[in-house]
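Q: Sequence in, structure out?
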Amino acid sequence: MNMVAEENKQQVISLLNEAYTCRTSNLNQSSQLAKKALVLSRKINDRALIGKSLSELALFSMIKGEHNRSMSMSEKAIKYFEELNDERGIADAKYNIAGIYYKTDNFHLGLVYLTDCLATYRKFNDHHNQARVQKSLGTIYEYFGDQKKAVQSYEDAIESARKAGDSNLESNAYNPLSGIYLKQGKIEKALGIIDRAIAMKKQTGDIRGMAFSIYGRAKIYAKIKQFEKAENDYNEAIAIHQQMGERLGLGMAYHKLSRMYVEMGQLQKAKTLLQAAIKFSRLYNIVIITFKCNYLLYQIYKQENNPIEALEHLELYLKQKEAVINTQTLKVIENYELITKMELLEKEAQVQREKAEIIEKKNRAEQSAIVKQEFLSTMSHEIRTPLNAVITIASLLENKADSQEKELVESLKYAANNLLLIINDILDFTKLDSGKSHIEARPCNFHKLLGDIKSTYTSLASEKGLRLELKIDHNIGEFYELDETKISQILGNLITNAIKFTENGSVEVHVEKVNKTQYCDTLNFKVIDTGTGIEEKDLEDVFESFSQPNSITTRKQGGSGLGLAIVKKLVLLHGSNVKVNSVLGNGSVFYFDLDLKRATPADKKPPRFSDVLQGKSVLLAEDNTINAMLIAKLLGNWKITTKLAKNGIEAVEKANLNAFDYILMDIHMPEMDGFEATKCIRDSEGPNVKTPIFAITADITAEYMEEYAHYFNGFLCKPIELAKLHQALVDAM
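A: Exactly. Output:
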């Protein structure tokens, strides 16, 4: 008997899951499946499943405009959930009730129920249902005329939908957001968002949602006087709503199409449609559509010089609107500030809960973080130290080279810096992960940057017999404010990845301008390859750290799987998202958008250093002979005298004997490291207690050593940037 009951229970769960899934394409089928689930759950007397079945039936009835039926079933479901102390079940049923209230124009009670639901869903980190509630809240805020709160709610809904991985919910929020941008006169932005919604609906097969998206596009076409396109879209939306039994959407489409007919001068057509809309709205108690249609009829009859009919519809409009703006709604408008404060308190409580969770996780990970810190410290020092020599030598040669040699030196510097970027893929990952990384935007010759990036990877592609092509939209400006290092890391990782997994054909980098504002351009970047492709089941994980799908990984390709994770974090740092389309065996397309501020040409002249440091003395503590020689040479160019200490003990001894204007201290040295040496100098009574001491280090973690950081006047990273070193010394004079 228990086995049979368990089988029946699983069957009910399966029926409910199927009912919820197919609600976007066949609402009637959803209702039939939920009814079967209810009958079966009552047969096995499972109170949790009875409540769940009633709640889903109520949801489908609410969507179809069967409000009394939906209210009755929702209230019954709540009783079951209250007996079981099921908070989420109660929230699900209250969401149905909220939908009934705001769709029948009782916005106050709709707001109360939705706010209650949202608190519960946040408690359980239920992003799917948070997205549904936030989208509905946006609708209510729009009605109150608070566009700022409405936009925020829709954007919150989009974020929650993305966290839930639900494209349908994401695109549902795009529809009303597009409408707000349309009201604000942002036509291109509105059209871009609604086109994205339609594309997502096509991909997911959400027929019911598609009708709302098409309706949204129709409004835009009507606004820009493309009436034929608008009429086609309105009629398509109406046909889908009729097929799906979606009543509110149908009423909205009737009203908007009528308004367009009025604008086109087709008044008889508008009147016929409005009369049908009023009859329909009265039948299903959609009051807001009724009074809007009456107001439009008033305008039509006034335009036709028919004062009797005009007055009749005006009176109906005023009477119906007065009924909608009832006592409860007036109350919520009067106390709107109080409601906002309540929401802020809820957000603060959520922040406190999240803070407690973060502290707990931090405590658990503390030991692991120490090990990671030590590893990064050693790695960064051992790898970046020899790079310092390469880049510094190139900088010294640059000032003495002729025009032909300068080209070679520039290539050497770019290649060395690119090697540094690759190393930073490992060393900077923790910095990105902890949120310590930030954008350092400067004016940049964008076309030259893209050309340099292409040049860097051309030979890598040629070695495999591949073509590496760069295609730049001719509308793209020459100069933008951007972080060259991070853009190079993003594209470099994507290009390297594409070459790695492509055996024949080509790798293409496309950059296209897709939008512009007064100061910025939105650029779309695509890296397209003809490689092995990625299986659909692996697409979600491809941007995770240390992850490589089994479908594309071979011993020949290898790699740590860190590159795409860094790309994702860097693109997020720019306020965007990187995405991928791929077909196994036919290649992949990685793409993302960036908003870049247009800039004027930057002054690229090499810095000129004055003789302000002439005659100064430096104690240089550096155990690497080549680096010591190079730094001494740099300082000599500024007419600074240098004394060398080969380790920390020697540095302390020399600092106790003679006064210096500056001390440049390497961190990782034998005998005694730079931290201890600096502490000894500061704690002594010698002549350099107050001398400016700068850490010259290849260890990217050094400046985060809180125990020692206060002993130093600053941290200068290897490879050394001449301008930063010079400025630091001048500032410390």
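The longest strand covers residues 587-598.
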